Amino acid sequence: MDMLQAVWLAVIQGLSEFLPISSSAHLILPSQILGWPDQGLGFDVAVHVGSFVAVVIYFREDIKQLTAAWFKSLRPASVSGGGSSAESKLAWCIILATIPAGLVGLLFGDFIEANLRSMAVIALTTIVFGLLLGWADQRHRGSKTVAELTWKTALIVGAAQALALIPGTSRSGVTMTAALALGFDRTTAARFSFLLSIPIIALSGGYKGVQLLGQESVAWPEILVGTALSALTAYLCIHSFLRLVERIGMMPFVIYRLILGAFLIYLIGSQG
């Protein structure tokens, strides 16, 4: 992988991690369509670190409040400063919604990595989950806000997030689809999805980081550029998406997914 490819892949990761279009698919496809060499585990870890840094910086105030409220919720209400609050409830909902993806990743991650990264799988999931996103946005989107999150809705969104281990599904896309289908407004669906990304990206990056231990060759220039560009692109993506999502809705991303899926089917047919 040369520096130009590293730049493109970092920008792709930064954009696709938080837009509902699937980052895993967009990192796999360049090697399958353009014949680029596989970027390697080290670069994957680097661009995920960049995305993680971006979302943590963007939501730093939320993270401070949620963390403080969560610790307070561990103390009895009879103790000064203890007891639950709206912030602690949201923190517990994020923890609960992370569990399904963590368990599925541990149990089936290797199988998915070995068997579900083909262009055919990506084409299918890109189209199917794109259509589901459009359906949820147009037919079931409501006006619920983050204050109306419950343990049940958090678990449903978390179960949907587990499906995103399959390339092409899109972690942000499937969690927003679930939230919209449950009646939440677009901004709440996006915001909860982005907050939910923090623990799952940390877990995924940590797991890949452990796998990386012992590898001898590390392309540090590409790694550093990839981390920085992924972080910058992801931060701008989060900021722009939250400002525009109520206005533009999900249909532009649905249309993109359908076009991409159709293109991949065409490529599969032409190769056959």
Explained architecture:
The protein has 272 residues and is mainly alpha-helical. The protein has one domain (3-271). Helices cover 78% and strands 0% of the residues. The protein is built from 11 helices and no strands. The protein has helices at residues 3-16, 23-33, 40-58, 60-73, 86-115, 119-140, 151-163, 171-181, 186-212, 220-248, 251-271. Helix 1 (3-16) runs antiparallel to helix 2. The longest helix is centred in the middle third of the chain and has 30 residues, at 86-115. It is globular, with a radius of gyration of 19 Å. The model has no long low-confidence stretch (mean pLDDT 91).
- Strand percentage: under 5%
Largest beta-sheet details:
none
Q: Which bin fits the share of residues in helices?
A: over 70%
Q: Report the radius of gyration as a whole number of Å.
A: 19 Å
Order of helix and strand elements from N to C terminus: HHHHHHHHHHH
What count of domains describes the coordinates? 1
Alpha-carbon distance between the termini? 28 Å
Q: Using DSSP, what is the number of strands?
A: 0
- Name the poorly predicted regions: none
Structural class: mainly alpha
What's the shape?
globular
Count of helical stretches: 11
